[in-house]
Amino acid sequence: MRGGGGKVAARAKSPSPPPAPTTIPTTSWAPADRSVPEIIGSLQEDYYNLCMEKSRKINSFVWHLLQEVDEEIEKGLEGITLNIPGNSRLMPVERITGEDLWILSRILKKNPYINGLDVRYNLMSDVGAYYAARLLQKQHKLIYLNLMFNDIGPEGGELIAKALHKNTTLKYLRMTGNKIENKGGMFFAAMLQINSSLEKLDLGDCDLGMQSVIAFATVLTQNQTIKGINLNRPILYGEQEESTVHLGHMLKENHCLVALHMCKHNMKNCGIKQLCDALYLNRSLRYLDVSCNKITRDGMVCLADVLKSNTTLEVIDLSFNRIEDVGAKYLSETLASHNRSLKALSVVNNNIKGEGLVALSQSMKTNHILSNVYIWGNKFDEATCVVCFVLFSFFFTEGFFWGLLYNIRHLQVALEMIVTYWGTWVAQWVKRLTLDFSSGHDLSLLSWSPVSGSALPEWSLLGILSLPLSFPCSLAWSLSQK
């Protein structure tokens, strides 16, 4: 291997490993007498034997997780994801390194039951990227790999991107938070010209440069397999919004992309206009994330106009912009009278006051497709609370009683807030609410969308109530953390 890859390979093999313990370490799941517990499955046994053979210290966290996977395999389960999150709060964590991934790759490369590996928030570095690349070359059942926040640099990004040239199985790769920079981004863009199996690529917070963002936009005009891409927070200089020009052109040509994340692109009204002009022609995009930009009410004129004719967009994240009351009213007018495809809208922290929030609430009375609106972080007043109360009453008359049979706690919270904290007290509570207005629609088609940094939760975690078809309307409440 030449160039940076050869250096990484040398670094991966050069350290002399410490002597392996003769017994496993004492942990909350290990016997107090430090004896080796009964090995119940092949993964755990292979891990132990390989650590002994290579004189590697046994990672007690990995040991415990492999035991759980072995139990799932014994039950006959397939398509298992091995989760080794370095930020887990459920049990004591011993973060794994690149050398630990070397051991794991040896035991996973021929295992037919594992098709996903999640090693987020660990200490992989470029050494771990080298072994992850080798795993992608040898494990032909892996469809999901999560390497987010592992201190992988440009050289490590190059190794993984080149490994995907010949890989035909991986569907979803998350590299979020690894500073592969513009150099690594260019290798991934080049990979998309060759790879025809990858469907979801998350490169948010990777310090991509303008050159690599333009390269992705160019490649995606031809790539017909990528369904979702996250290009959040690139390092862009200048005020000309070149990224939106190129990505807008891509949306005119690409008819396969379903989710596009452009958080923190320094986008202004001119940039959102470029995207809206493309959305008149695009008939595939369903999830658009333009949160944390500099979009104001003038940009909402373009977005509201395109929503009158666009019938594919289902989720729009406008969080942490500044559309204010006027922008909210532009959107609410379109949502009330024209658009019947949008299912979720986030206007979190947009300096919207009572007038704009009331307009959005009024649009939901006539638009029953719009099932989720996220409004916290704005400026609530008593008028907003009154409209919310009327809206709640509307949902009560449409069969919310039947939702009571599914979750009585939600009704208790609603009644307590409406009766006890009326007026300004309700306003204080509403600031800490996330409202999910469910209309019985199936949102599972968007559950896979990468949303790192987004104010919207994962769709698979929304917890929308499932009601009988004869009573399709429901109201789900969930108090967010203070």
TrEMBL record:
Transmembrane segments: 389-406
Pfam families (UniProt xref): LRR_6 (PF13516)
UniProt keyword Acetylation, yes or no: no
Taxonomy, superkingdom: Eukaryota
Region described as Disordered: 1-30
Signal peptide: none
InterPro entries: Leu-rich_rpt (IPR001611), LRR-containing_regulator (IPR052201), LRR_dom_sf (IPR032675)
Keywords: Membrane, Repeat, Transmembrane, Transmembrane helix
Protein name: Leucine-rich repeat-containing protein 34 isoform X1
